[in-house]
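hey can u check if this looks right to u? its 198 residues, i copy pasted from the old doc so theres a chance i mangled smth
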Amino acid sequence: MAQYPCVDLSVLPSAEQEKLLDSWPVPREEFIRQRELVRPLAPPYAVLTPGAVFGPLKGTGLGYFGQLLMQNPWSLCMRREALERLQAAGVRGLVGCPTQVRFRTRHAPELRDIQLESHGRIHPGCLPPAPPPCHVCNISRSHPRPDPYWLDAASLPEHVDIFRLDEASVPIIANERLVEAVRRLELDGVVFKELEAR
């Protein structure tokens, strides 16, 4: 579920863009070729694994959108003004790009798709033994996230206030600084769940 909405693949030839959009499995050599084609366009922290998604959210929007919103547990969008207010409040790690969501109303929200860095890990003390990596691509299958789980305090970043975990990109982690800013600015749309770090 690694998502990089601010990565623009339009500079690539259209034939290569079509190949990157095709989710059908490819031989390892082709995956490596495609990954290296994307690498110069991606941020240095990008985890370019199979299934990574590039470009902003696209589609049709209908209904009420809060200041912050999560269409699913692995993506975060914000209204433009909410993003600007959080950045002005000193929240670090918020990089957003305009979505390509179309609305049929005159007062459509200006949504920004948030691109998050990958940092931190789940504490090994709450994880079952890891499955062996694939003998072809050397990528380990992830095991289900334990519930409850806690974070490895030594692995948490100090330069950003919101991020994804390195080995589990689905939960989006926000520190107290971001949570306090969201509450102080009275931004709606998301619920925070407290996590422990050890």
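Residues 36 and 48 are 9 Å apart (CA to CA).
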